[in-house]
Amino acid sequence: MPVGFEHCDFLGRHGAALHREADRAAVAQPPGVPRVGRDEVSLRRYVQCGQLRDPIAKQCAHVGRADLAVRDRRRRVVRHHDMTEVVYEPGHLKFDVVRRTVREDVRALETVFENVDRVTVGTEGIEHAVAAAKNLHQLLDRSRRHDVHNGHGTRRSRYGENVITAPPLTLHKIADRVWVWLQPGGESGVSNAGVVGDDDGLTVIDTLMVRSQWAPFAAAVKELGETVKRVVLTHAHIDHVGGTTAFRNAMILGSPMTSDLLDQAMPVDAYKAFMPAFTEGFDELAVLGTRPVSHIVDEAAQLTERIELLPARGHTDGDVMVLVDDADVLFAGDLCFFGVTPLAFQGDPAAWAAVLDVVGELADTIVPGHGPIGGAAEVTALRDYLAACVSGTIPPGPWDSWLERAERDPINIEKAAMLRAGDDGMPPSMLRALGL
Ligand SMILES: [Zn+2]
Questions:
Q1: Residue 82 contacts by C-beta under 8 Å, 6 or more apart in sequence?
Q2: CA 252 to ligand 1 center in whole angstroms
Q3: Which residues are paired to 172 by β-bridges?
Q4: I need a labelling partner for 155 at 20 to 30 A (CA). Which of 61, 105, 301, 379 fits?
Q5: Helix locations, 151-223, DSSP H
């Protein structure tokens, strides 16, 4: 039968959509492949309407062969002289082309989205690396200036040599108007804090976690009889920020990450699961809350005449160290754990190890976030441990006596491996430790 009314109806109802799809199909065809698309659809219309004006259409419109294609309702390759034409029965054409082009379009879009994701991940990686390099550069600069200032080069010390013995749970003076408040042990939830005096008043460094910890610390600070002007948060972990409300009138300084995290709801259940010994304290803290960061620290800054703030990343993406250059004291926050295994579930062990290359050069006396005071040798041991975590195997070393090895080794190794694979997520071993 000739191409008839059935075909005409088909074009009448679906002609515009069909042309659109056929156009896309024609574009999608690589050169040299028999064409499917507008020409053929046009040919059908010309045949149907009896308007064989187009010379190519005329050439292709060998009625007998076209009819055959229609009758068979199949895809046919029709040869005309030296030209190959693919001919479809219209209903079939519509179905096949639409289905194929939609599939192709979806696949093409998926590819675009995958590429966008890859570019985004890559860009974030580059931004991270640039930020880390900038931080390291600032720290290196600071370390070199410090060495010139103090007239010495790279320090050498043995493990334990520089450790200042300070009694725990008391405001202990380690230099002129520089105090530490150490908590014994240094395991999860048991952190250190410090105080530095300037002419205008005091700067508190970290605030401990629950009331049973920060209330005696805040009372001892009050006994100094000076105004607390500033609180510097070394990072956002709850064992450093839980006591901010004890210093109601001070400005609160922290990294952008610390600021973001303190603006979010407190994950009290996770805290309880991870540190069940402090369950009651967390119940109260959930009601009391923490103060938000009032001043963001995103690059090295001279906070007061005595205090320099040095941002870094390693333990988290938003660490801040506090250097009191004239006293040769560095409050390293959780970039340093001494005598306690570090925990990198939110950090980057490789970047952390790189930062520690510099940290030991910044001051002779280093107050860690957890554990007793130390110096360059303790920093080196910590760096070597983290480098071992990155390598995936931890050999015997000074860390053999550290607390919480069994719990934290798998988390640190897993986190380093995940980052190597481009995954910045929470290690499953940490989620298990959180009871999630
Ligand atoms: Zn921490």
A1: none
A2: 17
A3: 180
A4: 301
A5: 211-223
CB 245 within 8 A of CB 289: yes
98 sits in the region (left: phi over 0; alpha: psi -120 to 50; else beta) called alpha
360 vs 24: which has the higher pLDDT: 360
As given in the structure block, the two tokens for residue 390 are: 């990155």
What 3-state class would DSSP assign to 49?
helix
- How far does the centroid of ligand 1 lie from the alpha carbon of residue 240, in Å? 7
> Strands (DSSP E) along 40-151, which ranges?
76-80, 83-87
pLDDT of the residue at 220: 98
What count of residues does the chain have?
436
CA of 158 to the centre of ligand 1 (A): 26
Distance (Å) from CA 40 to ligand 1 centroid: 69
**294, two tokens:** 């009032």
Residues 325, 331: Cα–Cα separation, whole Å: 11
Domains of the chain: 1-139 (no CATH), 154-433 (3.60.15.10)
Residues near 313 by beta carbon (within 8 Å), at least 6 away in sequence: 128, 131, 132, 135, 319, 347, 348, 351, 352, 355
Please name every residue paired with 312 in a beta bridge, in sequence order, or none if there are none: 319
In contact, 296 and 267? CB cutoff 8 Å: no
Residue 149 corresponds to which tokens in the numbers above? 């200032």
What is the Cβ-side half-sphere exposure of residue 275, based on CA atoms within 13 angstroms? Answer: 20
- Note the pTM of the prediction, 2 decimals: 0.70
Distances (CA, A) of 142 to 194, 196, 380: 21, 20, 18
**Angle between helix 279-288 and helix 211-223 axes, rounded to 10 deg:** 70
Beta bridge partners of 181: 193
> How many angstroms separate the alpha carbon of residue 193 from the centre of ligand 1?
13
Q: 313 in helix, strand or coil?
A: coil
Measured in Å, residue 160 CA sits from the centre of ligand 1 at 23
3-state helix, strand, coil in the chain (%, to 5): 50, 15, 35
In angstroms, the CA 351 to CA 370 distance is 19
Q: Which of 56-70, 198-212, 230-244 has the lowest mean pLDDT?
A: 56-70
Q: Mind listing the pLDDT tens digit for each residue in 36-87?
A: 444 444 444 444 444 444 444 444 444 333 333 333 445 566 666 666 666 5
Q: Are 215 and 390 in contact (CB under 8 A)?
A: no
Q: Are 259 and 226 in contact (CB under 8 A)?
A: no
